[in-house]
Amino acid sequence: MAIDGITYSSFSGWIDPPGEVLPAFEGELACDVAVVGGGYAGMAAALRLAERGADVALFEAGFCGVGASSRNAGHLSGAPPGDPRLLGALQPHRLRGIVQFSQEAVRFTEELLQRLAIDSDYEPTGNVEAAVSRGQIQKVRRTAQILHKAGSEAEFGSGRDLGLPGTFLAGLFEPLGGLLNPGKFALGLREALLESGARVFERTPVRTVEPTSAGVVVNVPGGHVRAERVVLATNAYSRELAVAPKRLANPVWVRMVETDPIDSARLEATGWRSRSGIVTKHNIMESYRLTPRGTIVFGVRRLSAGRGALESRTPDPAAVADLARGFRTRFPSLRDVALDRTWGGWIAMTSPWLPVAGEATKNVSYLIGCNGHGLAQAPYLGTLLADRLAGDELHDDLGTVWRVQPRFAPSLFCSPLTLRTMWAIDRLSDRLHSSKR
Fold first, then answer.
1. Number of alpha carbons in the 13 Å side-chain half-sphere of residue 391
2. DSSP assignment, residue 118?
3. Which residue of 33, 94, 193, 298 lies most exposed, with the fewest beta carbons within 10 A?
4. Pairing assessment for the beta strands 56-59 and 223-232 based on DSSP bridges
5. Helix, strand, coil tally for the chain in percent (to 5)
6. pTM of the model
7. How would you classify the pairing of strands 208-212 and 215-220?
8. CA distances (Å), origin 365, targets 1, 40, 207, 361, 409
9. What is the pLDDT of residues 172-190, one digit of tens each?
10. For residue 184, how many other CB atoms are within 10 A of its CB?
């Protein structure tokens, strides 16, 4: 599989940018709630607040959906984030809440797609956490036992029984959810938001958020906004605002690759009968999914830690070549298939690798959703937080991820050295597994 001729994109491979981007905000404005960030979580929060009669204004540096929302792999997954084995050992009661939160997030997002009539190419195929070695089989089996006790609907099975290609030996099948086009979902949510009563300002980066005795002042290049409350839905860019909790988000760069269209007979011959999305049980997962256009989109495998300003960029060829090697290993019968394009983007990882929400300071709330473990959690979390700001009691699912104090420990898992080490261990494990086979 050659990577010559592949298109390197600084945006997304799922969609083109919208034809018209809204103008930047200039002047002065007063509102009930200002939402900073136009990803899934921010758009969902602003939409729910508008539906409940609040005067809400959303501010996005680019256009709504430009970031991780339109660049991810599109796995709508009910699998809990983080490491269930670790969480089950240290906080077993909390694990049950995380499982419930994750599964309800999928149900909510499926209903949202239907209610807003968003055409996202959604296929309710479920997703599989798959093992590619005997060691990973034991990890997956143990995870299945832990999640079953916590109320998960996930089921352990052999790769053949789960309809996976032959190189995937076994897996944990999560029947809730499936696969969609994340770019179409993001633009569909954006369209619904623009048709609501919310005021939306794109091309408007927020410089500072300053709590005062009378509310909160949001400063942007062209003016300032006075709001009673502010929601920080800033994902990987959270550290650019001083008001955000320290160490709230650890930005990492994730890459995706898409193949050329593949003949249906060749796809069928791989044994991928279920069409379920696949993520591997490596330290840094590999993800694989089919698309309606007959291609395979795959990614992750290697993460790069964010240092300094988070600038837009294209994937580096060495990392793309590494992804291609992984694809050839998992799909040996397709090793001659050409790659069409590659893209990437910044995502946020919290130190516990779990969704979080809380109050940074008086009248300033924050939230971070999926942590790379299923996009359903971001819009669900944004909606739950909006309901709380609108006067509802704290929902049980929101309470599961709510932080009483805005304090976060340093994350050793997201340091450049740790990420390189985890990748190296994964590749060593792959070589050992290959030699045994």
1. 4
2. -
3. 94
4. unpaired
5. 35, 25, 40
6. 0.96
7. antiparallel
8. 47, 16, 17, 7, 19
9. 999 999 999 999 999 999 9
10. 20
* Amino acid code (one letter) for 359: E
Residues 6 or more apart whose Cβ sits within 8 Å of residue 356: 248, 350, 366, 367, 368, 401, 403, 408
* Residue corresponding to tokens 């770019």: 183
How many other CB atoms are there within 10 angstroms of residue 380's CB atom? 28
226-256 residues labelled b (16+ CB within 10 A) or e (exposed) = ebbbbbbbbbbbbbbbebbbebbbbbbbbbb
Whole-angstrom CA distances from 225 to 22, 32, 38, 362 are 18, 10, 17, 17
Give first-to-last CA distance, the chain, whole Å.
22
Q: What is the pLDDT of residues 98-128, one digit of tens each?
A: 999 999 999 999 999 999 999 999 999 999 9
Strand, coil or helix: 173: strand
Tokens coding 265? 């007979």
Structure tokens belonging to residue 118: 């968003």
Q: Cα separation of 52 and 54, whole Å?
A: 6
Task: Give me the count of residues in the chain.
Answer: 437
Question: Cα(171)–Cα(186) distance, rounded to whole angstroms?
Answer: 29
Residue 164 has, within 13 A of its CA and on its CB side, a CA count of 29
SS3 category, 183: helix
Share of residues in the chain with pLDDT > 70 (%): 99
**Number of other CB atoms surrounding residue 157 within 10 Å:** 16
Q: Cβ–Cβ contacts within 10 Å for residue 45, how many?
A: 30
Return the structure tokens found at 210. Answer: 């300053």
